[in-house]
Amino acid sequence: MNALLIGVALAVGAPALKDPPKGESPVLGDWALVEWLQHGTKLAFGEGSGVEFLPGGKRLWRDGPGGSDERQYKLYPRTSPAEIDLIRTDSGPMPLVYPCIFKVEADRLVIAVGSPGGDRPRAFDTAAIMLMTFTRVKKKD
Predict the structure, then answer these.
(1) Structural domain tally of the chain?
(2) What is the phi/psi pair of residue 106, to 5°?
(3) Which residue, 55, 91, 97, 108, shows the most beta carbons closer than 10 Å to its own?
(4) What's the pTM?
(5) Is the peptide bond before 77 cis (omega within 30 degrees of 0)?
(6) Where in the sequence is the domain holding 51, given as residue range(s)?
(7) What is the share, in percent, of the chain residues with pLDDT greater than 70?
(8) Where residue 7 falls among pLDDT bands split at 50, 70, 90?
C-alpha cells in the first residue's frame, strides 16, 4: 500500500513532459535555381544562381558563382498553401516585400512570387509574376 502511495505521489509531482522540439522549416538550406519564369516566359540565369535560407529570416541570393546578396524572408508555414514574404531592403528607403507562396516536395522548392505590395499568388502557375523552381544543394562531406 505504501509503495502504491509513493508511486502516485511521484507521478503527480513529476514535471510535465516538454513539447517535442519544433521541426526546422523545410525551406532552410541551400537551393540551386533550375527554372525561372516571369509572366510565363523562361528567363536566363547564370550557373550557380540560387538562394540559401538561413534561420532567423536571413537569406543569401546568388546571381551566379560570384558573391551573394543578403536579403530577408518571413514564413507563414501554417497557411495553405504555405506563405513566405521575400524582403529586399537594398532597393531604397522602404523595403520591398514580395508576397509569395511556396511548396517543398522532397528536394524541390517552388516559389510563386507576387508583386510588391500586391496580392499573394493563389496557385503555382503563370498568373504569378514569377515562378521559381529550385533543387536542394547536397551538403559536401
Answers:
(1) 1
(2) 60, -115
(3) 97
(4) 0.80
(5) no
(6) 29-136
(7) 82
(8) very low
